[in-house]
Amino acid sequence: MTGSTLIETKNAYINLQRKIREKEGFFLAWITDGSAWQTMKTTVAQCFREIDFPMNYTIASEKLDRVVSELV
Predict the structure, then answer these.
(1) The predicted structure's pLDDT at residue 2
(2) I need a labelling partner for 6 at 20 to 30 A (CA). Which of 27, 29, 30, 57 fits?
């Protein structure tokens, strides 16, 4: 996914994150395939600022259990 599609998806998840923050006991982990992380660095950087737990498949497979256990 590149260009405007990724930007629209990012905006949708940022809006979802804002709604989730209003609910106690919920968090958002956005797991992507990571293909745009090298080519769309500005968009990905905004995700890291706005979304609690953005990660690609590799990070998720290595760290998601730890993230969840620390939150629960």
Answers:
(1) 52
(2) 27
- H/E stretch holding 54 reads strand 53-56
Q: How far apart are CA 11 and CA 6, in angstroms?
A: 9
The boundaries of the domain holding residue 7 are 3-71
pTM given for the model: 0.74
Q: Which residues contact 7 (CB under 8 A, 6 or more apart)?
A: 43
Count CB atoms within 10 A of the CB of residue 54: 23
Compute the residue count for the chain: 72
Q: Angle at CA 67, nearest 5°, toward 66 and 70?
A: 85
From the DSSP assignment, how many helices (H) and strands (E) are in the chain?
Answer: 3, 2
How much of the chain exceeds pLDDT 70, in percent?
Answer: 96
